[in-house]
Specification:
Blueprint lengths: L2 E12 L5 E11 L2 E11 L17 H13 L5
Antiparallel strand pairs: 1-2, 2-3
Amino acid sequence: MSTRIEVHNEVRLPQSKGYHLCFQDVTYHFDWGDEPGFRFIWRDPNDNLLPSRGQARIPDKVTLERLLKKAKSKGWYK
């Protein structure tokens, strides 16, 4: 089974050493169909995605709220 992920929107916050924690509005394209969703993922200092780091740990509620606020200000939802 293969999955392709299409990113529609992204907001990010700088963390440490040039890494960014990103919140993305995505569509998961599975072999059996498509599903909309959201994900958190890291980007390295060269702006590469880091899916190898597994699920992104959200360090605290303030960071989560800041990412959601940025997404809302970009019009992802009301």
